[in-house]
Design brief:
659 residues; alpha+beta; Serine Threonine Protein Phosphatase 5, Tetratricopeptide repeat; five-stranded antiparallel beta sheet; globular; SusD_RagB_dom; RagB/SusD family nutrient uptake outer membrane protein; cell outer membrane; SusD-like_N; TPR-like_helical_dom_sf
Amino acid sequence: MKKILNILGLLAVLLAFASCEDWLDMPSESKADSSSIFETVSRAEMTVVGAYAYLHTQELGYQLLMGTDESNSTEANSKYYMSNYDYTNVTGMLNSTYTSMYKAIEYSNVCIKNLPNMSGASESEQKKINALLGESLAVRAYAYWNIVRYFGDVPYTSTPTSELTTFSSSRVSRDTIWDHCVADLQRAVELLPWKSEGMVATAERFTKNAAYGILARVALYAAGYSLRWDLNTVPYDKSTVKIAKREDAARVRELLQIAADACAAVINKKENTLLDDYDKVFRDLAVKAYNNETMFEYGWYGPNSIDVRTGYTNGIPTSGSSSTFGKGGAQMVAMPTLYFEFGEGDQRRDVSVCNYGILSNDDLQMSTYIGACIGKYRIDWMKDRGATDSKRNINFPLLRYSDVLLMYAEALNELNNGPTDAAINALKTVRLRAYKNDESKIGTIPTGYEDFKNAIIKERKLELSNESLRKSDLARWGILVDHLTAEKEKLYQLARREGPYANVDVYRAYKKVKGTLENPIIAVPHITMSKADIATLNLTLKEDSVLNRLNASGEGFLERTFYEDKTTGTVYYTKSSVPEGANVTEASYTILNMFGCHSVKQKGGLSVEDVEGFASKNVWIEDMFYGMKKNMVEILPLNTTNIIDVNPGLAGQQHPCYQ
């Protein structure tokens, strides 16, 4: 991706970016320049590669990622509104992904038009040209997938804008767009090389493997539910809004078969595998090391790269005065209940939910349930600080092999009204890796349709949390609002320590350790302390207040000296409790009330009044998803100023629930 971004300046000249179409804000092809661009394979490749820079945005890793059962906002601004589905308060937002994807589409349209006119001087050069065409087709489909999954019916073009005397497109049926995307990807897999052929050196570009995976994803979306309305009457009639699949049941089944076959092609090729250690997937992303699990990733490099902020907004909190790590924003936190969704021994838990932040002196400070952040994009897993505090050079996963396995299981379950042996084995493979191949821990895999589908819904959360898939996954299953409503009730249960959360820890104690670059630590070790344990400490009124009054970020932590047995490792909380003759050493511990709102930089928080949690008074939970309404928020409204007003074809075509 460093190469991708470094050539953008050259492409600005080659593609005459000044002649942009306002409504798309994207580069327009110059007929004179295009002839010179496509005279050589190397120049053509630069144009193809240029599209990749636009396939991921800050919104996709931030505003559009949170607001699910995986993560939520810590801010009190437009991001907070978006996280809680209040789309009426986001003026000026919700347009960068839309605009960026159309830039990628324009690059691809230019290439798709011109590459077939090139002839290779040798068989290998012709194969390269064919592969470049395959990449362009896959990029275009991927970009449309990103637009349609959030905005539904949108303008569609497969022609470079320079060939159009005017372009004023109305919304085009998403089913039509999905079918174009499927066709593009089917053609792409015929043209692209397998990873093993060595023609593509990086997972930041499409191979046949990755194109098959994205084909499966697009086909599942095309076969799934979405918020729809009648496009034939403008302005749109709100009474026609409904959540439904496309009407052609035969086509739905065909799409499910396409998805299953695409996944099978990858699985049977046996080039992609799951890494033994789940944390290595994301450690590799932090140091730009490619592996056989991450099939497609967004890579970026340097201070002049597009500002997607991976590892900053969606990373772990870091004090701005740390000379080692700089500042980490952590403008979102993992949903407190996510941690408890993982089974005991599931190695994904402590990777997905980071239990620490980094202080100015580089100490790792343990986080509370609400303060725990997304753990997949960690600053301390990098080799260096990165280009700037907000541009960390951490790659973002766009497709992993575990996703292919889970899509395969899902498609087979849908096709056969229940899981086949192959579907069960695919899900089992993902679970086995999670539990380090300990089959005794993976539980029983359901064999009925509904139970297996629910297992897939849960497993996708555990495996793919905060990889910018969950919100649109819930929407394509038609359960977004119902599912998140139930999730909110689970937060109340956690607050009250009821039901499955009745026995969760209230207090934990840990020893501070220093954070380092390429940090081997996944989670800060801790010991559990009960109320009875706390009582033995004979806290002063001030100490008790600090530990149990949790409304401010300076409270909830208490430093104490414990006594560690050098032989057995047993920890004694007071000197008087040490057995006679025991060989102990003093150790400094921090006691943490897990129901506080603390992290190194927690902007939002909980209003709490007692040690039992935040049941007495909790505006944070009460306001969770306050703007969420069924048959409304499953599709985003179009930004009026930056999308509708500059495209006459969209006049009167706002989402009918936001008119």
